[in-house]
Design goal:
- The radius of gyration is 18 Å and the shape is globular.
- It is built from ten helices and 13 strands.
- Helices cover 26% and strands 15% of the residues.
- The protein has one domain: Rossmann fold (3-Layer(aba) Sandwich).
- The protein is an alpha/beta fold.
Length: 293
């Protein structure tokens, strides 16, 4: 099996909707695309972003100081930055070569529940990466993209029989958006998992390496720690056991890139050919799972 392309693909939702009593707009959660972009770039990957329509609407909450500040805010506000150039000039997923990537990452925002489940062109890219032994990953509401992603080797849903994690139904209640979201008539992350035969858990199990992936701006600290932050009108502090370091959201991706480096640098070692879809990273809290062949 040839080495995988050292290119990463970040899927972005093109949907938008009113939320928080109809006062604000949900769309693409900026840090959930920005942080992976930074990790992949630092690892020497070429990174592309695309949505199903080639458009995006920034999520209101993701632009608030609790979630976007400091260097991240400066990067987003700089329309000449590499990230903004990619984000603002995204192609449609249909115009992307699905075989050009070794990593697939689904960023999110609540709006992802609206378009990801039927985003057939984004799903086609995820299937291709998985089939060729690459890393398939998501964050927060991103697992909605797996609604119709199939493991081509088995014909079964890609996440069937796997333990994943994502934005929980309980968290929707905590944010007080659960009633509004019922009017969308769309499955939540945990409901998608159940339908597809996967187990969705708040925290990883089985001793696998893990990292948190809540999209909060955190400039310092380590896994499980939060810096001081201001409250937003719609934000309620989480219990201590569920507080996470937003800057640690990509640690699982770093682990996956490091442990799978041979897939890009040398190709698989003789006699150790990886199974198709050797890596799965599902975030929030992020679980890094590697299926060994």
């Amino acid at each position: 099996m040839a080495p995988l392309p050292r290119r990463a693909f970040i899927a972005v939702t093109s949907a938008s909707a009113k939320l928080f009593d109809g006062k604000e707009t949900t769309g693409a959660f900026i840090s959930e695309a920005l942080h992976p972009f930074q990790v992949f770039t630092a690892a020497g990957f070429e990174v592309d972003l695309a949505s199903e329509t080639g458009k995006y609407t920034p999520d209101w909450l993701s632009l608030q100081p609790d979630f976007l500040a400091g260097e991240d805010l400066a990067t987003y506000q700089d329309t000449a930055s590499a990230f903004r150039r990619k984000l603002d000039n995204m192609p449609r997923a249909a115009d992307i070569d699905p075989d050009a990537y070794g990593v697939f990452f689904a960023s999110a925002g609540h709006a992802a529940l609206l378009d990801f489940p039927t985003a057939t062109d984004l799903q086609r890219i995820a299937e291709s990466v998985w089939a060729r032994g690459g890393i398939v990953s998501s964050v927060c509401h991103g697992p909605a993209v797996f609604a119709h992603v199939v493991d081509r080797a088995t014909g079964e849903p890609l996440i069937k029989g796997k333990t994943i994690t994502g934005f929980t139904s309980e968290a929707e209640v905590v944010m007080k958006v659960d009633a509004e979201m019922k009017t969308w008539n769309r499955p939540l992350v945990e409901e998608h998992a159940a339908t597809l035969g996967a187990t969705c858990k708040r925290t990883p199990s089985g001793g696998r390496p893990c990292a948190n992936a809540e999209p909060r701006q955190a400039r310092q600290g380590h896994l499980g720690q939060l810096p001081h932050r201001r409250r937003t009108p719609h934000h309620r502090p989480e219990p201590p056991e569920r507080q996470v370091d937003g800057r640690g959201c990509c640690r699982g991706l770093r682990q996956a890139l490091v442990s799978s480096s041979g897939l890009w640098e040398q190709g698989p070692r003789p006699g150790r050919r990886p199974s198709p879809g050797a890596n799965l990273v599902i975030c929030f809290r992020m679980t890094y799972s590697r299926r060994r062949g």
